Amino acid sequence: MGTQSEYKHLVHSDDEEEEDTSLHKDLDIPDLSCNSPVFKTMAAMFGGIMIPCLVAASLAYRSGNSPCTSVDVTTSYGKVRGQHCDETYNFRGIPYACPPNGSLRWRPPQEPTCWNDILDATEFKSMCAQVRPLSATGKVMGSEDCLYVNVWTPSLDHYANLPVMVWIHGGYLLVGSGSVPGYCPTEELTSHSQMVHVSFNYRLNAFGFMALQLLREGSPTNTSGNYGFMDQIAALKWVQKNIKSFGGNPNKVTIYGQSSGGTSVWTLMVSPLAKGLFHRGIDMSGSSVYKATMAETEQVNLVFLDRTGCRDAQCLWNLNIRQILQSAPWIEYPNWAADDLCDLPQKGKFVGPLAVVDGYVVPAPPLDVWKQKKTGYSDVPYVIGTTLQEADVA
Question: Which stretches are tagged as biased composition: Basic and acidic residues (predicted)?
Fold first, then answer.
C-alpha cells in the first residue's frame, strides 16, 4: 500500500512540461460486452436493437477501404467540418461551452461564442485538466479549455430522427475524457447500431467539484461545487439544440455511463436542471450513495484554500493548473486521490464521490428524492446494473 508522505499524482518538477493530450492509456476498460445483462436489457428497451460491444478490441476505429471525405454541418453556433468515413460521419471537438478558465473558472458553463469560419471538427480536443491516474510518476494532463462534444452518426438527414445515445465517461470524477480509445463511441458502433452517438468532456477534480464558501459568495445561485455536473447539463442542452442537424431525434435521447459516469446519470435523473433534456437513463456501476452537504464539504475543503494561500476569488483564478491540483486535500480526504482505488480498505477512510448535495444541481441525495417522492426529477425509464468483474482483484 502506498505511503501518505507524498502526492503521487503531481508533476515532478517545474522544469517538466505538462502533458496536454486527449487520450488516456491507464484506465481499466470494463466488460461491457454484447452478452452482458446491461446490454441485453438495453437491447430490449430499443425493440431488439443490440448495441455492439464497448470493448477496446471490438471498438477499434474502422480502417475501411474508402478514403474519408470532408463534410460540413451547420450548428446553432456556426458551421463545423467533420469526416465521412465508410458508412458513418464523425465530428470531433465541437465546443458546447466557453473555456472555463480565468474568471469563468468555478462558474457555471457559458454558451460558446458563435464563429463565422468553418470550424475544423476532425480531431479530438484536449481532455479536462487532471493528473495521470494510478501511477507513481503522474503528470498533469489536459487543459481548462476542454468543454467539447463529439458526434458519430450514420446519417446527416435532418429528418432521419435516429435515437441518440449520450455517453458519460467514468473515472471517479477525477480522470478520463470522452475520447478514451475503447471507452467511447466509434464509427463501428455507430454503423452497427444505426444510432447517433455523442460523447463529451466535463470538468474534473478540483476544477469540476471544488466547493468553497468563498466561491459560493460570488455565485448567482449561491452554490459551489458540482461544476462538472453543470457541464454535463450544458452538453445535453447542446444536444437538444443541435442533434437534429446530425440526423438525431432530440426527443429520443438516452444518457448512459459507467462508474462515475453512472453516478452522473443518477445525478442527472434527480436534478431539476436536467429535466426534459433526456428520455431514458442507463447506469452501469454508478453510485447513488452521496449525502455530503455543501456546508460540510466547504468546511473540509478549507484545507485546499490553506494550501493555495489564497484569501479571495481573484487569487484562485490566477493560480495555474499545477498549483490547483497540488493543493487538492488528498492526504486528509482520500476521495480526492485516485491512487486509493488500488489500496486496500482502511478503517475510518471513506473513498467516495466528490458530488455535493447543494440544493441547486442536486436538491437531495438521489435515493431520498425517490423515497420521499420529491418533485422535479426525471420520471423516465431507467436501467441500473453493474459491469462484469467490477471489483475483480484476481
Answer: 1-13
How far is Cα of residue 105 from the mean position of the Cα atoms in its chain? 17
3-state secondary structure the chain: CCCCCCCCCCCCCCCCCCECCCCCCCCCCCECCCCCHHHHHHHHHCCCCCCCCCCHHHHCCCCCCCCCEEEEEECCCCEEEEEEECCEEEEEEEECCCCCCHHHCCCCCCCCCCCCCCEECECCCCCECEECCCCCCCCEECECCCCEEEEEECCCCCCCCEEEEEEECCCCCCCCCCCCCCCCCCHHHHHHHCCEEEEECCCCHHHHHCCCHHHHCCCCCCCCCCHHHHHHHHHHHHHHHHHHHHCEEEEEEEEEEECHHHHHHHHHHHCHHHCCCCCEEEEECCCCCCCCEHHHHHHHCHHHHHHHCCCCHHHHHHCCHHHHHHHCCCCCCHHHCHHHHHCCCCCCCCCCCCCCECCCCCCCCHHHHHHCCCCCCCCCCEEEECCECCCCCC
For cell 473555456, name the residue: 99
pLDDT digits (tens, 9 = 90+) for 331-378: 566 555 554 445 554 544 444 447 899 999 999 988 888 888 888 889
Contact (CB, 8 A) for 331 and 306:
no
Q: What are phi and psi of 9, to 5 degrees?
A: -85, -20
293-302 mean pLDDT: 88
Cell 452478452 found at: 35
Q: Note the pLDDT tens digit of each residue in 114-173.
A: 999 999 999 999 999 998 765 554 588 999 999 999 999 999 999 999 999 999 999 889
Cα–Cα distance for residue pair 253/250, rounded to 1 Å: 6
Grid look-up 507513481 returns 136
pLDDT bin (cut points 50, 70, 90) of residue 7 is very low
State the Cα–Cα distance between residues 192 and 316, nearest whole angstrom.
47
Q: Residue 300 corresponds to which cell in the numbers above? A: 473540509
- What's residue 330's pLDDT? 66
